[in-house]
Amino acid sequence: MSGAATSTAEARAIPEYRQIMGHPAPLWMLFMTEFWERFAFYGIRWALVLYIVAQFYGGSGVGQADANLTYGSYLALVYAGAVFGGYIADRVIGYQRSILVGAAFMVVGLFAITVPDQDVFRLGLATIIVGNGMFKPNISTMVGQLYAINDQRRDSGFTIFYMGINAGGFLAPILTGYLAQSFSAQTGVPAYKVVFFAAGIGMLLSLVWFQFGRRGLKGIGAATGELANPMRVVAVVIGALVVIPGAYFLLKLGAEKLQGILTVLFIALALMLLVEGIRNGKVARDKTIAMLIIFFFNVMFWCFFEQAGSSFTFLAENIVRRDFGGWIFPTGWFQSVNTLAIIVCAPMVAAVWVMMGRANPSIPRKFGLGLIFNGLAFLLLMFALQSLVGADSKIPFWTLFMVYVIQSIGELCLSPIGLSMVTKLAPTRLVGLGMGGWFLSTGIGNNLSGIFASFVSGESGMTTQSALGGYTFGFYALIGSGVLLFLIAPLIQRLMHGVK
């Protein structure tokens, strides 16, 4: 009875919206807002490590290690920031204003990194980190607020929104890569400055789109009561300005020391979740333990998956044959392969799960499959670096292309069920903290990805041998983790007490 009452109350609270293609009209506004934000995020993703080497190390390979470490730390802090951004929207200024403030900070940060100064560059990244923390988790939450809990269109609404994410991620590297080549050659403006400026324009479009489109939300996500006090926005802006130097300090501190800080935070968070689980009885305790075990394997997955923006970029730039009859395939375009593969393969993977019926793998085994597919991508790289290196010391184009595709299949086995799993396994009073644990474990994996990528590049820059040595380690680490997870899956499943 209580569940029904809650659903009914929520249904009444949702305004009457004009419908477009069977969904509330504001969904499409949020779709485009997220499209432009992802355009900005993925637009700079491929260029960051190349820019650091070119701008601050004169193009020398000795800068690759630092570039990889900076990239990993940047991603880690982006995910860590999402933990606090949700709290700001929930408890301080509401979802709409949180998105607007976050978008404004991201615009400033993206334009700041166009300045060719290392300290300003780090401050720009720190500003993007703070802004993304307030933007990213909250726009996804608003999609859910357009539907009643029992609305059958809810899942398809999130699917449409997810396509906006992937569409932005697909087009961004293609367009920014094209601009970097053509516009820079015509005007003399440095290529990477063009990339960062284009991403800044994309984020500005996201901000403007949401500002003018949010009227159509009819109050959903708007601040009410005490949260509507405009001085709270002022306080959040001041707080964000105070936090930016902290993020800058963490970036400058280095990935190794940052890893220590993130690990301590994760241990503290895990202990809080475990204590709460124990208080709630044996079932809650077991579910919490199962969730924490899966968090560990999540770290392993993202540590190697996120080579896409670091060591794989240097691999593409220096060791992959990209010449097609005089036309050079832009390095940045490899970043679009992941999102293209997600768009193409997601329906097929979903259909496979449905066709398997009762034989559908459990959550731990789906995670295990994600790790194994990730490992198979590294196996392909091992084969290419051992057997397919040509006289020009380069490997065929198709090998790296397929690495991104295989990794994407692994991502589809693991990533879509992560947040859903947390809501089912975390202690009831600390689901938000459980979500924080998921994001933090992903952030730790991203930071480790930078450390691993610096190992792959070595002291003087990536070579065929350094890449082979690093990726061989990645293969064994991933396959070993995936097999281990398959073996202990029955134990984890028992700890989950029937959660599917």
Walkthrough of the structure:
- The chain is mostly helical.
- 78% of the residues lie in helices and 2% in strands.
- It contains 17 helices and four strands.
- It has helices at 2-13, 25-45, 48-56, 64-93, 95-112, 118-145, 154-187, 191-213, 230-253, 255-279, 282-305, 311-318, 335-356, 363-387, 397-425, 431-457, 464-495, and strands at residues 19-20, 23-24, 323-324, 327-328.
- The strands form two sheets. Strands 1-2 form a two-stranded antiparallel ribbon. Strands 3-4 form a two-stranded antiparallel ribbon.
- Helix 2 (25-45) packs antiparallel against helix 8, helix 5 packs antiparallel against helix 6 and helix 5 (95-112) packs antiparallel against helix 8.
- The protein is globular.
- It starts with a helix and ends in a 5-residue tail after the last helix.
- Residues 1-12 have low confidence and may be disordered.
